[in-house]
Amino acid sequence: MTVIYQTTITQIGASACLALEDSMLITFREGAPADIEEYCFIHCHGELSGSLHAGAALELGEHCYPVTAVGDVAEQNLRELGHITLRFDGQTTAEFPGTVHVAGPVPVAIAPGCILKFLA
């Protein structure tokens, strides 16, 4: 598999970890509006050099997750805003247009410096 996107988490919003309790992780690039930043894992925006699709993989720190579904606007949101909502539920149909679903356990600890990659 080839890395099509890579970024590093630089900051964690005050309420970002609450989403993990709902099996979600929300990202946004640096410079997000303050009201959005509070709920996001902020990262230094990388360049998307391929297509997000079911069958790709997400690497988050030391863990690898198969991508099971990609919403209609998730790729565009990631490319333009560094924004994506990851759901750790393995669904094969995207719940919302901006959601990427992956199979595997919800991460328990994400710290600044954690690397997020998509591979296809």
TrEMBL record:
Keywords: Transferase. It is an enzyme of class 2 (transferase). One of its GO terms (molecular function) is protein-N(PI)-phosphohistidine-sugar phosphotransferase activity. GO terms for biological process: phosphoenolpyruvate-dependent sugar phosphotransferase system. The keyword Transferase applies. It holds the Pfam family PTSIIA_gutA. This is PTS system glucitol/sorbitol-specific IIA component. The lineage of its organism: Bacteria, Pseudomonadati, Pseudomonadota, Gammaproteobacteria, Enterobacterales.
